[in-house]
Amino acid sequence: MSAVTQIDAWTRHEGEARVRQAFAAAFGADGPEPGTWSAPGRVNLIGEHTDYNGGLCLPIALPHRTYVALRPRQDDLIRLASAQEPDGLRELRLADVAPGAVEGWTAYVAGVAWALAAQGLPVRGFDAVVDSCVPYGAGLSSSAALEAAVAVALDDVFDLGLAGADAEPDDAGRTVLAAACVRAENEIAGAPTGGMDQSASLRSREGHALLLDCLDSSVRHVPFDLDAFGLALLVVDTRAEHALVDGQYAARRATCEAAARTLGVQSLREVAPGAGLATALDRLTEASDDPATAVRRVRHVVTEIARVEALVALLDAGRVRECGPLLDASHTSLRDDYEVSCLELDVAVEAAREAGALGARMTGGGFGGSAIALVERDQVGQVEQAVAQAFAVRGLTAPAFLVATAAGPAN
Ligand code: GLA
User: Fold this and answer.
1) Among 145, 292, 379, 383, which residue's beta carbon has the most beta carbons within 10 A?
2) Considering its fold, how many domains does the chain have in total?
3) CA-based end-to-end distance of the chain
4) Cα–Cα distances in Å, from 339 out to 9, 14, 45, 109?
5) Which residue positions in the chain have pLDDT lower than 70?
6) Strand residue runs (E) in 116-173
7) Considering 189, 204, 223, which residue would you say is the last residue of a domain?
8) Both 164 and 277 in a single domain?
9) 367 burial class (0-12, 13-18, 19+ CB within 10 angstroms)?
């Protein structure tokens, strides 16, 4: 067997030590010591492209986290450095943060401060350094992890009182922080994403999947411990980089919003599966500019929301081994109806299934990024080998792997 690349999570100690060291390198040893905070990336079990349609999704927080070392300032200067991009300090004023005014990764950091301040919360400037073991561009929410780490850091140093204690997180307060992170991403970073990732990073519970209802932002923590069933969730980073700021994601969202308007509903969540969907598709066929596309997109969203409910019912009943076909159906729907898969994702999913996975699907926004496979714990190695081999045969960049467990939220 040849070696495959594993994406390792840092221990808390390691992540904090790295970011403290990087802070000292960036800002010198003078001045007060920074505090450290961190927030997880996420992987979504099912419920893709449903969040911005008022639907359901079911992410877990990953053990892979983004770390921030931060100390508050008395003025409104924001000074930032990243251990990932050692190109020196970035400096900007909180008062100058505005849509279109900040570029690159600093937009996610400064955007959170901006969004909190815009709510009238007493946020000032700060010095901060970030580092992360959440792979960038892998569809595992490195940007939400960055936003959430900054959000809990600012909450702490400016006494906003929103995150709650580690032992007793304040979910209502964290919902406010998540909303600020979404504003940062949508308005300052310019990525029109739907909010699942920020909630996953801030509101998850260790050992649980987060059933997020995007209609009212309510959550239920669904016990999720595959190990107890002799199973594992294998994540395949296809290394095909995805970008949410490009037009495809926005185009999907716009089609859904136009379809909702045509159907006279607030969001596609209002379309029931079965007869309701059939009627909606008839109406779209008559009244849409591009009926074939509208029909496919809406069919995906409505059936995907139903698949989330079905998967949660199986988890609640302890019938975890029966979840595979729902993952498979989700992938087919994303590939054929929503058209957000790509060669690498399809190859990963098919190779995993052929090697014995109980089910597999692309996860996240698509067009690259990661796939997940539900596998027997003792077959993880063989599935990894099979996927790596399938990539090699096609001349694709070698994929990387991690086995995901449901970790804890930002703190
Ligand atoms: C990206 C976005 C999320 C969500 C997913 C698709 O991860 O950030 O808001 O829309 O795509 O489910």
Assistant:
1) 145
2) 2
3) 39
4) 31, 40, 19, 31
5) 1, 242-245
6) 126-132
7) 223
8) no
9) buried
Tell which of 186, 203, 223 closes a domain. Answer: 223
Q: How many whole angstroms separate alpha carbon 350 and alpha carbon 359? A: 9
Q: Within this chain, do residues 151 and 253 fall inside the same structural domain, yes or no?
A: no
Say whether both 66 and 119 belong to one domain. Answer: yes
Q: Do 218 and 230 sit in the same domain of this protein? A: no
* Ligand 1 atom closest to 143 (CA): 8
Please give the pLDDT value at position 2.
77
CA of residue 324 to ligand 1 center, whole Å: 21
365 close to ligand 1 (CB < 6 Angstrom): yes
Question: For ligand 1, what atom is nearest to the CA of residue 51?
Answer: 10
Q: Are residues 254 and 352 in the same domain?
A: yes
Contact 49 CB / ligand 1 (< 6 Å):
yes
Q: Which atom of ligand 1 is nearest to the CA of 185?
A: 8
CATH number at residue 362: 3.30.70.890
Q: Is residue 410 part of a domain?
A: no
The token pair that represents 314 in the structure block = 């199986």
**282: CB partners within 8 A, 6+ apart:** none
Q: Is residue 131 part of a domain?
A: yes
Residue 234 lies in a domain: yes
- Domain limits for position 312: 226-404
* Nearest-angstrom CA–CA distance, 128 and 79: 6
Best residue for ligand 1 mutational test, from 48, 52, 196, 337 (most atoms within 8 Å of Cβ): 196
Task: Tell me, using a 6 A CB cutoff, whether residue 364 lines ligand 1.
Answer: yes
Ligand 1 contacts CB of residue 51 (under 6 A): yes
Q: What is the pLDDT of residue 220?
A: 98
Catalytic residue check, 197: yes
Q: What CA–CA distances, in Å, run from 398 to 1, 175, 254, 334?
A: 15, 38, 34, 23
Query: Is 334 a domain residue?
Result: yes
Residue nearest to atom 11 of ligand 1 (CA): 365
pLDDT given for residue 244 in this prediction? 56
Q: What is the pLDDT of residues 15-35, one digit of tens each?
A: 999 999 999 999 998 889 999
Q: Which atom of ligand 1 is nearest to the CA of 44?
A: 12
What pLDDT is stored for residue 88 in this prediction? 83
The domain spanning residue 177 has which CATH number? 3.30.230.10
For ligand 1, whether the C-beta of 185 sits within 6 Å is no
Say if residue 233 is in the same domain as residue 363. yes
What is the pLDDT, as a whole number, of residue 85?
A: 83
* Predicted model pTM: 0.97
